[in-house]
Amino acid sequence: MTSSAGEVISGRYKVVRLIAEGGFGAVYLAQDNRLGNKTVALKESFDPAPAAQEQFRLEAQLLANLQHPGLPRVTDYFLEADGRQFLVMDYIEGRDLDQLVIDQGRPLPERQAAALMAQVCEAVAYLHTRRPQPVIHRDIKPANIKITPQGHAVLVDFGIAKLYHPMKGTAKVAKAVTKHFSPPEQHIGKTDTRSDVYSLGATTYFALCLSLPPDAMERLNQGALVIYPSRVNPAISPLLEKIIMQCLELNPDDRFANANRLAAALRGFLNNHPVVYAPPGIVCPRCGWGNRAGAKFCVRDGAPLGAQLAGVKPSIPAQPAASSPPLPAEMLFEMANNYAAKKDFAQAIPRYEACLRQGFSDQAVYFNLGVAYLEVQRYTDACRVLEEGVRRYPQDGELYYQLAQAYRGLNLPDKALLSSEEAARLAPADPDNLRQYGELLFEAGRYQAAVHPLEKSLHKDPNSYHASLLLGRAYGELGDIKKAANTLNRAARIELTRPDPYIWIGIYFVRARKYREAVVALESALKVDPNAAAAHAWLGEAWMQQSQYQKALPHLKQAVALSPGEAAHHARLGRCYAVLKYRAEAETSLKKALKLDPSSQLARDWLKKL
Q: What pLDDT digit, counting tens, does each position of 353-411 carry?
C-alpha cells in the first residue's frame, strides 16, 4: 500500500505526493524536515521477499558510492520496523524522455537526441568503469531518463542494477527485462556492458523515430527486422543511423564494447568527426557489415571479402537484412523457452536438444526438455533426458519429479514410485512432490503409507483439490468414513464444479451401509453435474440396497446411457431388471455386461437366477 500525502516517514520525510507506482514499489516527492524541507525523491520497495530486500539494499549501496552529474545522488537508506524499505535521493526536476517525445508528438531533432543520449552514455560509461567491477544498469529506457529544465539528461531508477562478475550467471538466474529495450542475453540473466549499449541504442531509436524497435526475442524467434531509422524519419543522417544499428546487433560481439565507445561515436557525430568502431572480424567493402574473421563472403549481401583487416570504417548498408550470427547455447535455451511458453513444442524441442549438443548442460535444460517431451507424450525420450539429468544433478528433486511422470507414461509404476520418493526426500517442502508420492502410493494400494505425504502436502498447500481428493479417498479405503467425508467435502469446497468428491463420499457411505447419507452425497454430485454417470450408478445402488428398485431404475438406465462401455453399469441395471421381473431386459443387460467384462461375477450370478 502506498504512503499518503502528509505522512511522515522515519520521523523525517514528509510525503508530498506520489510520483510513480509499480508492482513492487513506489516513488514519492517528499520534504526532508531536517534540512529545511529540502525536496527529495523517496523510493519505497513493496516486496518483502528476502531476495528483493537484498536487491534493494544493493541498489542503495551502488548509488551511495556514485558521483556523476548524470546520476542522482543517494543521501539516505533505511528499513522501517514494519519491514518497508526506503531509499532517499536527489529529486530531479524535469520530464521523462518518453513523455517529452510523446508530448511534442514528433521525434526529437537528431542533434538534440544525439546530445542527450551522449550525456546518458557518459553517465553509463562512468558506471561501466567502476572498480573492482563495472556496474550494469540493465533497465535503460526512455522512462528512466529525466530531462531537466536546463536540458540535461539524468539516468534514474537503478532497480535492477548489478555488479558484473564475468564468471557468474546461469540460465536459471532471475532476470528482469523491459520489452523492446532489453537485449536478448538479458532474458537469460547474462548481461555485461554491451547489454546496456543495446538499451541505449533502442532508446535513441525511440527518441528519433517515435516508434519502438521490435523486441529482441521476436527478432530471434520470429525473424523480425529492425526498420532502419531513416525509413521512419528521413531526417536521420547515415552516420547516426549506423551508430544506432550497431547498438542493436543481436550478437553482443557486434555492438560497441561499452558505453564509453558509444559516447565517443555520438560526440564524433556531433563534432563532425566520425568515430565508428567496427565490429570485430572482416568488414564488407560494399555494405559495411561486420563478418566473422576468416569469412570469404559477406553474410548480408554475398560480396567477396578477400583478405581485409578488421576494423575498417564501415559505410551505411543500402537496406536492412537479417544477419545470422552464431547463437550461444544460452540464447538458444531462451528461444526454446519462448516456444515452450507458447506450447509450440515442435520448435522448442530441437532447440533444447541443440543446447545439450553444444555442451550447455544446466539442469534447467534437462528439466525443460523433459517436460516438453512429456507434453507431446514422447515418454521414452523424456526418460532418457531426465535420467541423464538426475545422473548429473542427483540432488535436484524437480528432475526426479518429472522422471516419475515419464515412468508413469511408460506404465512403469515401480520406477515411478522410486523416483517420486526421491523427489519428496530431496524437496520435502514442495507440496507437488509430496502429492505425487502419495498418489503413487495410493495407486499401489498402500493407502496407509499414502496418508502421511498427502497430509503434509495439504498442510503446505491447503487449497490443493487433488491432494484433498486423494487424501479423502485414502481415508475411505482405510475405512475411516468420518475423515474421508470431511476431507472430500473440503475438496468439494475447493472445486465447486466437480462432482467427484461427492461421488466418493457416496461410494464410501454405500460400502459402510449408510445408505441415507450416501443418497444425500450422490444427489449433491448430480446437482453439480447431472451427467455424472458414476453418480447415477451409485445412487441406483444406494436405492437398491434399500430395496427401492423403482427409484433405482431410472438412475441405472441413465448411467448406462451416459457410459455405455462400463460393464458394471450394465450389471447393476440387469440386477434391477431381474428383481423387478423384467426378464428380457435383465438378460440383455447382463449379457452386455459379460461381453464387456467376462469376469463380472455380478452378471454371472444374476444370469443364473433368471
A: 988 988 888 888 999 999 999 999 999 999 999 999 999 999 999 999 999 999 999 99
Residue 172, SS3 per DSSP: coil
53-61: long-range contacts (C-beta < 8 A, 24 or more apart)? 53/79, 53/85, 55/159, 55/160, 56/85, 56/87, 57/85, 58/161, 58/162, 59/87, 59/158, 59/159, 59/161, 60/87
Q: How many whole angstroms separate alpha carbon 283 and alpha carbon 315?
A: 9
Helix runs in 376-514, H state only: 379-392, 397-409, 413-426, 431-443, 447-460, 465-477, 481-494, 500-511
The lowest-confidence range among 178-192, 270-284, 439-453, 538-552 is 270-284
Using alpha carbons only, give the angle 380, 383, 386 rounded to the nearest 5 degrees: 150
**pLDDT tens digit string along 83-122?**
788 889 888 888 889 888 877 878 999 999 999 999 999 9
Q: Kind of pairing, strands 38-45 and 74-79?
A: unpaired
Contact 289, 323 (CB under 8 A): yes
Q: Per residue in 144-158, is it b (16+ CB within 10 Å) or e — as a string?
A: bbbbeeeeebbbbbb
Residue type, 17: R
Are 518 and 550 members of one domain? yes
Highest mean pLDDT among 53-67, 140-154, 217-231, 568-582: 568-582
578: containing domain: 567-610
Q: What is the pLDDT of residues 174-209, one digit of tens each?
A: 344 577 888 888 876 677 888 899 999 999 999 998
**Are the C-beta atoms of residues 572 and 540 closer than 8 Å to each other?**
yes
Q: Are residues 58 and 187 in the same domain?
A: no
> 82: domain CATH number?
3.30.200.20
Question: Is 296's pLDDT higher than 50?
Answer: yes
- Quote the mean pLDDT of the chain: 85
Centre a 10 Å sphere on the Cβ of residue 487 and count the other Cβ atoms it contains.
27
Cβ neighbours of residue 290 under 8 Å, at least 6 residues apart?
254, 278, 279, 280, 281, 282, 283, 284, 314
Query: Which three cell numbers, joined as nine digits, stand for 385?
Result: 533426458
Task: Transcribe 320-374 into DSSP letters.
Answer: -----PPPPHHHHHHHHHHHHHTT-HHHHHHHHHHHHHTT---HHHHHHHHHHHH
What per-residue confidence (pLDDT) applies to 317? 39
The three three-digit cell numbers of residue 298, written as one number = 559477406
Distance of CA 228 to the CA centre of its chain: 32
- How many helices (H) and strands (E) are present in the chain, helices listed first? 25, 13
Are 96 and 145 in contact, with CB atoms under 8 Å apart?
yes
Same domain, 82 and 223: no
* Complete edge-to-edge strand list for the sheet that includes strand 145-147: 95-96, 145-147, 153-155
For the stretch 541-551, pLDDT in tens is: 999 999 999 99
Buried b (16+ CB within 10 A) or exposed e, 30-42: bbbeeeeeeebbb
Mean pLDDT of the region 204-222:
87
Domain end position, chosen among 530, 546, 563: 563
